[in-house]
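Quick one:
INPUT:
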């Protein structure tokens, strides 16, 4: 989570019982009994290795870096690539943490996701030409 955001302010559909798109891990829990972070972590799976609040199509398709979630596979890819190294300025931060991180995940055969219902079910790897590439 970076310092440019406030919250968490979750979308209204997060308050539904789990078992739908968000919150697939615990079928009996509702938002009042599970951490807000599950809105992100429940979207990580064998195919999706990077999750954020939004996806942007500006420049190259990428997960915006206000808040990112990944698993051990994703964090290892990002560390090894240098995508988590300190940035000198805002432009370099966007290039590394947003554009670069998303491209690294995709270049390694994984996809990304976000909380935006607009992009539910989008297979970002299937885009031709790959709009996420460096």
């Amino acid at each position: 989570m970076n310092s440019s955001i406030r919250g968490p302010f979750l979308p209204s559909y997060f308050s539904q019982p789990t078992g739908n798109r968000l919150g697939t891990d615990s079928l009996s829990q509702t938002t009042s009994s599970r951490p807000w972070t599950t809105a992100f972590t429940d979207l990580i799976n064998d195919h999706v290795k990077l999750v954020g609040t939004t996806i942007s199509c500006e420049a190259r398709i990428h997960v915006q870096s206000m808040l990112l979630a990944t698993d051990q596979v994703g964090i290892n890819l990002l560390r090894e690539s240098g995508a988590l190294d300190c940035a000198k300025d805002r432009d370099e931060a966007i290039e590394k943490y947003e554009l670069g991180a998303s491209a690294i995940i995709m270049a390694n055969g994984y996809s990304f996701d976000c909380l935006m219902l607009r992009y539910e079910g989008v297979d970002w790897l299937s885009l031709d030409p790959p709009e996420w590439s460096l």
